[in-house]
Design goal:
With 387 residues, the protein is α/β, with parallel strands linked by helices. The chain has three domains: 3-130 and 209-243 and 292-306, Rossmann fold (3-Layer(aba) Sandwich); 140-198, Helicase, Ruva Protein, domain 3 (Orthogonal Bundle); 311-385, Beta-grasp domain (Ubiquitin-like (UB roll), Roll). Helices cover 38% and strands 17% of the residues. It is built from 13 helices and 13 strands. It has a five-stranded mixed β-sheet. It has a three-stranded antiparallel β-sheet with strand order 1-3-2. A hairpin with a 2-residue loop joins strand 2 (53-55) and strand 3 (58-67). Helix 1 (3-11) packs parallel to helix 9, helix 5 (156-163) crosses helix 6 (171-180) and helix 6 (171-180) packs across helix 7 (193-207). The longest helix has 20 residues, at 120-139.
C-alpha cells in the first residue's frame, strides 16, 4: 500500500520500507508540514520561521505524524497487530488512510497483480474495525453504567464524555449524537445493541475523521479504481497521490538537483542529472504532475488539517514591528482549531497574556478587536496585555 513510503515522503525520516506485508511494527513518529500562503508578501518583507520553513512565500508549518502498525480484518478482536494499532490511534485527531488505488496489494498486505484486488474493501473494513473498537469501549460495563445513570438521574452527556475521554469525545458530541439518533437520554438502559452501535459510529466519525490517500496513481489500474471509490464513498475526501514520486522529488531537491516546492505541479532542474535520474524525473512529470497536477502527498496533509479538522493558521505580530526580540520577522505561525477567539490565541502564546488580556489588534487592518473576536485563517494578531 506504500504506507511507510508515504510517511517517509512527508517527513524524510528513514523508516523500514519493503515489499512485504506490515513492515511497520512499532509506530514511527515524525514531523510533516502543512502548506499555506505566507503573510510575508502582504507586508513586503521576508520571514524567518523558528519552526518549519518558507519557500517563495509558501509557509510550511509543522504537524506531528504517526505511522502506526498495519491493520487487518478482525483487528478489534486482537488479530494481527490490532490491539496495538488501535491503542496508537487514541491520540490521533485525524486519520490518513493510505490505500493501494491500483489494486495491487490485498487485505493481507501481499503484492498481487495490478487490478486484481478491489480497494473499496480497504475503506469498508477500516470503518468496521474502528466502529467495533468504539463499540467495545462503549459497551464495557454498560449495563451497570446505564442503570446508575437512570437511578441517580445523572447527566448522560457528562458521564459518557468522561468514560470516552480517551477517544477525545466531549459532551457536545454526545449530546448531538444522542439527539440525532433520537435516543432517550434519561433511559440509556433501554438502548438496544443497534443503538449503541449507531452511537459508536457517530462518535467515531466526529473524533476520527478520515482522508483517503489513494496511492500508486502511476499504475494504470488506479485511475478507474479512484473513480469508483469516489462514486462509492461520496462523503469521503479521496486524494489521488504517489508517495514514491513525492519522495523522489524531495530527495532530488535535497541533493540540489532540482528546485521543488512540495505541492507544486512542476519542478525546475538546477543540477547535473544522470540519464537514470533524468528518465525518472521525466516519468514523474509526464505521468503524475502533468496528469494530476501534483503528487498529491502535500494535498493529503493539507486536506486532513484544513478541510477535516478545519484548523486555521494565525501569526503573532505587531503593528509597529513584525520582529521578535532577536530580529526574526514573523517567526511563528500557529495552527488553531475552528472558532478560535483572540483570547484563545493569547492563552496559546502565554498564560500571562491570556490572564491579563486587554484587547488585540488585527495587524493587517490595524483594527482593535475584543477577546470574543473569531480569528480567521492567516490572521496576524497583536495581543495587548496588562503585563
Amino acid at each position: 500500500m506504500g504506507k511507510s513510503t508515504f510517511f517517509k515522503a512527508l517527513t524524510l525520516i528513514d523508516v523500514a520500507i519493503a515489499a512485504y506485508p506490515f513492515t511497520t511494527i512499532e509506530p514511527n513518529k515524525g514531523i510533516g508540514f502543512v502548506r499555506i500562503e505566507c503573510v510575508d508578501k502582504e507586508f513586503n518583507t521576508n520571514c524567518n520561521p523558528r519552526f518549519g520553513y518558507c519557500i517563495d512565500h509558501q509557509r510550511f508549518v509543522p504537524v506531528e505524524l504517526i505511522d502506526v502498525a498495519g491493520l487487518v480484518p478482525g483487528a478489534h478482536e486482537g488479530k494481527g497487530m490490532g490491539n496495538q494499532f488501535l491503542d496508537d490511534l487514541r491520540q490521533a485527531q485525524v486519520l490518513i488512510h493510505i490505500i493501494d488505488a491500483s489494486g495491487s496489494t490485498n487485505e493481507k498486505g501481499e503484492i498481487v497483480p495490478a487490478g486484481s484486488y478491489d480497494p473499496v474493501f480497504d475503506v469498508n473494513f477500516l470503518e468496521v474495525e474502528l466502529d467495533m473498537w468504539y463499540l467495545s469501549i462503549l459497551k464495557k460495563g454498560w449495563e451497570k453504567f446505564a442503570r446508575q445513570i437512570h437511578q441517580e438521574h445523572l447527566d448522560i452527556n457528562k458521564a459518557l464524555a468522561k468514560q470516552l475521554s480517551g477517544l477525545n469525545v466531549n459532551e457536545d458530541m454526545i449530546k448531538n449524537s444522542i439527539k440525532k439518533l433520537a435516543l432517550n437520554p434519561e433511559m440509556p438502559h433501554s438502548w438496544s445493541e443497534e443503538d449503541l452501535h449507531k452511537l459508536s459510529m457517530e462518535l467515531r466519525k466526529l473524533t476520527k475523521p478520515i482522508v483517503i490517500a489513494a496511492n500508486k496513481i502511476d499504475i494504470p489500474t488506479a485511475e478507474e479504481n479512484i473513480k469508483r471509490l469516489k462514486e462509492r464513498f461520496p462523503n469521503y475526501n479521496i486524494v489521488p497521490c504517489s508517495a514514491e514520486s513525492e519522495l523522489a522529488l524531495k530527495e532530488a531537491a535535497k541533493a540540489n538537483l532540482i528546485k521543488y516546492i512540495p505541492g507544486d505541479k512542476s519542478f525546475n532542474v538546477i543540477g547535473n542529472l544522470s540519464d537514470k535520474q533524468k528518465n525518472a524525473l521525466d516519468y514523474i512529470k509526464n505521468n503524475i504532475l502533468d496528469k494530476y497536477g501534483s503528487t498529491g502527498a502535500q494535498q493529503v496533509l493539507n486536506t486532513a488539517v484544513f478541510e477535516l479538522l478545519k484548523y486555521i493558521s494565525v501569526f503573532p505580530g505587531g503593528v509597529s514591528k513584525l520582529e521578535d526580540q532577536h530580529g526574526n520577522r514573523l517567526p511563528d505561525c500557529f495552527l488553531m482549531p475552528p472558532n478560535t477567539t483572540a483570547l484563545d490565541f493569547a492563552y496559546k502564546l502565554h498564560t500571562d497574556l491570556g490572564q491579563n488580556f486587554i484587547s488585540a489588534i488585527d495587524v493587517k487592518t490595524k483594527r482593535r478587536i475584543g477577546k470574543e473576536h473569531l480569528l480567521k485563517h492567516r490572521d496576524v494578531v497583536e495581543i495587548i496585555s496588562g503585563k
